[in-house]
Amino acid sequence: MTAEPTTREKLTLAAAELFRRQGYHATGVAEVLALAGVPKGSLYHHFPDGKADLARAAADWTADLIARILDDAFAPAPDWPQGVATFCHKLARLFELAAEANACPISALLFDGPQEGGFRDHAAALLDRLLAHAGAHAARLGAPDPQEKGETLLIAVEGAWTLARARRDSDVLRRLPGRLA
């Protein structure tokens, strides 16, 4: 049995969803509060700097999600190509589940947040963490140039997500492993 999410978790999940779907600047605090089902005072209790703090929490949550998807794909993989294939298939499924999303969770994490308060630096550190995470899986699986493999994978995923969005076709993500081989 899973525990009921805390108020902070509800706010973070609601913000991550709305920021991904609508973008940071197009999302109002009232929308986040309504989706989370919490009163306004809760936002400032958990996020004293308001929407900017919430954006950092949503970015952290998104990076953790992508790291979990990487782990779920690569942990059982016998080699790098199989891990890539599983990762891309999992992302295709995420794309289908979030069909109304405007952006890849990774690009939304980096580019749709506030310009102030060190958010860009925070997001860049999260991206570096994801790159290192992918590179660590490549190294564990014996791929040559593991850091380059991890970086290439995330670069390719971002482009594939954009093309899938333009075409409204998750199979773009499923075909990516063949193009990376």
Description:
The chain is mainly alpha-helical and 181 residues long. Helices cover 74% and strands 0% of the residues. It is built from 9 helices and no strands. The chain is elongated, with a radius of gyration of 17 Å. 34% of the residues are buried.
Q: Mind summarizing the main beta sheet?
A: none
Query: Helix/strand/pairing class, anyone?
Result: mainly alpha
N to C succession of SSEs: HHHHHHHHH
User: What are the low-pLDDT stretches, counting only 5+ consecutive residues below 50?
Assistant: none
Number of helices: 9
What gross morphology would you assign?
Answer: elongated
Number of strands: 0
Fold blueprint:
Elements: H1 7-22, H2 29-36, H3 40-46, H4 51-74, H5 80-97, H6 105-111, H7 119-140, H8 146-167, H9 171-180
Helix pairs in contact: 1-2, 1-4, 4-5, 4-6, 4-7, 5-8, 5-9, 6-7, 7-8, 8-9
